[in-house]
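4.2 Preliminary Data

To establish feasibility before requesting continued support, the project team ran the inverse folding procedure on a target of 278 residues. The structure was first converted into the token representation described in Section 3, and no sequence information of any kind was made available to the design step. The complete token record follows.
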């Protein structure tokens, strides 16, 4: 690594060791035509992505002692295109689950959606307005396990109904896990019978969790609260507080990188940087 003062978001040696084999294998499979090995270390490229994820800065505002925007954008786009971001994320998820004494794949998932405002410059063709929550922008759909780890993510216009998001989430859960492993999905009342019926075609029993009518305000629901916790954890990554990405696929990639940061810290016992003054 080049000599510079570290940022709080930088990968430690132990955290880098968890993802380095995937990056190295990808790099070996994509050699330069000229045979050049590249000017920038792959670890520094990832450090730049995690810095931006955590701080929410613009591409042009990356610090000068990190690789330049052109290099970081190139690798970020290439890894998103080739699914390397998801590969790294999924491998880490397997390790976190196994460390917790669970099987690599879950038997139960929790579905939920979150609408976020889109930043200026995000194409209007990929955004909409959530009529229920009165939020203009995009909608994120997550399927998490009981540890709050992301199994599937969908990003679409906020105007897309939760039912449509739920169906795509179930399709992606089925594609991301072995047949028959996920047996149950818990969802809130925003999802309707069409999602339940779609889950049945995938061998997943979708259960709509009814809210207790006696409850007032925000009352965490058993098991379902973990997906809310995941949304809260993701909000610590300021790049996810709004949707700044031109392409929904890039928004999904941002979720993978944020959770990669979370999981590498869990696996190595590294605390996350705090927003509080010390």
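Position-by-position output of the design step:
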């Amino acid at each position: 690594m080049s000599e510079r003062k570290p940022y709080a978001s930088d990968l430690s040696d132990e955290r880098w060791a968890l993802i380095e084999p995937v990056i190295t294998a990808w790099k070996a499979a994509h050699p330069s035509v000229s045979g050049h090995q590249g000017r920038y270390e792959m670890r520094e490229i990832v450090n730049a992505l995690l810095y931006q994820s955590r701080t929410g800065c613009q591409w042009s505002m990356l610090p000068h002692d990190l690789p330049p925007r052109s290099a970081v954008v190139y690798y970020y786009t290439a890894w998103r295109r080739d699914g390397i971001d998801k590969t790294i994320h999924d491998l880490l998820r397997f390790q976190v689950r196994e460390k917790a004494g669970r099987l690599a794949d879950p038997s139960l998932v929790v579905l939920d959606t979150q609408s976020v405002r889109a930043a200026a410059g995000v194409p209007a063709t990929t955004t909409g307005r959530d009529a229920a929550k009165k939020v203009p922008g995009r909608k994120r759909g997550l399927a998490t396990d009981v540890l709050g780890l992301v199994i599937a993510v969908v990003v679409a216009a906020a105007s897309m109904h939760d039912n449509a998001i739920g169906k795509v989430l179930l399709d992606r859960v089925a594609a991301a896990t072995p047949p028959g492993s996920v047996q149950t999905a818990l969802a809130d009342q925003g999802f309707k019978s069409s999602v339940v019926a779609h889950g049945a075609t995938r061998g997943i029993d979708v259960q709509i969790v009814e809210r207790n009518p006696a409850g007032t305000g925000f009352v965490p629901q058993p098991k379902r609260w973990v997906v809310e916790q995941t949304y809260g954890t993701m909000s610590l990554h300021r790049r996810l507080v709004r949707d700044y990405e031109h392409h929904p696929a890039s928004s999904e990639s941002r979720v993978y990188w944020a959770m990669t940061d979370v999981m590498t810290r869990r696996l190595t016992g590294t605390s996350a940087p705090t927003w509080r003054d010390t």
